[in-house]
Amino acid sequence: MPRLRTWIFIGAGVVGAVSSIGWISLGGRAAPAEFTVERAVRQVLRDSVAANGEIQAKTRANVGVQVTAAILEIHVKDGQWVKAGDLLVTLDQERYRQALNQAEMGLRMASKDLEIAQATFTKQDQTFARQGKLHELGLLATEDFQGVKLARDTAATSLERARVAVLQAEAQAAIARDDLSKTVIRAPMAGQVTGLKAEKGETAIAGTTNLAGAVMMVISDVSEMMAEIRVGELDVVKVKLGQPAEVTVDALPGQIFPGRVGTVASSTDRPAGSNAGSAQETQSYKVRILLEGTPERLAALRPGMSARIAVLTAEHKDVLTVPLAAIQDREAKAGGLGLLTGSRSIVFVVKDGRAEEREIGTGLSTRRAAEILTGLQDGETVITGPAKLLSTLSAGMPVKLKKDNK
């Protein structure tokens, strides 16, 4: 009995709710909800992608080291202009001088051994030729001739090993000579010294550029500047080469620097081994904006300055639009096997005090408005809210406009 009573109460509630809705739709005495409306209008619709980033020189070179040694002298200062080939840093050379001396000594010894091996082989080869003639005349026993041949072959093997040893010693000497030359670091390009990190007396560490101590300074060509941003995977598909952009920097308030998209990364630079399959991880892609302007104006910018960048990704002129709040996504029958549900975009227009449903086709969408391709005419009135009531609205229901919309 208690269970039956529960179902009766539930049934009564459902019937009451349905009756109330029917009463309203049939023009009962309940007052219809108040809605806000706006007209579909033609305007210019723009979409953009904005992100925080930083200013960098378009062309720059990280100056690091390829050998590990103490820094004896730094010949430049931060902000100094240099030419290609100018002396930047001198490292401690003593260890590498000794390594070169040792390698050159090994090369001399290997060369001497090669001379001895060559002389020995020449002598054994000549002996083999003479003894071969005697063996052909029957004047030398076969056993003795085989011994002479073995001595000649052994000398040939020793000569080949001596030649290989010389090549190895030459390679070692070349490596030692190259290491010594790398203790003197010169500018790889003309530009300005930026981000000087090294100090005299520190140990410069050979390695990759993300290893502390591997990059001592950066040489930047500040005649051409750019802004670097990271764009999320949902927005990067909108960004194309050549799209216009605007850049502002915190250090120069009120100034806007125009630019254009110069490069868009084709893949994320997520470190190998990270959680690539994590559903919560949002990937981002590096986008570079080449700044435009006179050299005098760009000279005010400095690498590393914080910047705010906006890229114009689309612009449609004189298109019919409605506020984004007016568009509702409703369930629709899907094709194929029917296993997945689809959706359709609709708006409600006001006709004779009632809601009329219109299925629409949309084009460009921004955060505030959407382009209408089909389903509406210029000047028609669409219901925009309140959002909670709009989500439950259906065709034919009476609507009352708020006073400020009349």
Enter the CATH topology name of the domain at 32-45 and 319-405.
conserved putative lor/sdh protein from methanococcus maripaludis s2 fold
What structural category arises from helix and sheet content? Answer: alpha+beta
Helix percent band: 25-40%
Number of strands: 20
Main pleated-sheet profile? 6 strands, antiparallel, barrel
Radius of gyration: 41 Å
The count of helical stretches stands at 6
- Named at the architecture level, the CATH assignment of the domain at 32-45 and 319-405 is Beta Barrel
Global outline: elongated
Model description:
It is a single chain. The protein has 6 helices and 20 strands. Strand 15 (342-351) and strand 16 (354-359) form a beta hairpin. The longest helix has 43 residues, at 94-136. The strands form 4 sheets. A 6-stranded antiparallel barrel has the order 2-9-12-11-10-13. Helix 2 (94-136) packs antiparallel against helix 3 (142-181). The protein is of the alpha+beta class and 406 residues long. The model is unreliable at 1-29 (pLDDT under 50). It has helices at residues 2-25, 94-136, 142-181, 233-236, 295-298, 387-390; strands at 34-39, 41-64, 69-74, 81-82, 87-91, 184-186, 191-194, 203-204, 215-232, 244-249, 257-264, 284-291, 306-323, 328-332, 342-351, 354-359, 361-365, 369-374, 381-385, 400-401. Among the domains are: 32-45 and 319-405, conserved putative lor/sdh protein from methanococcus maripaludis s2 fold (Beta Barrel), CATH 2.40.420; 93-182.
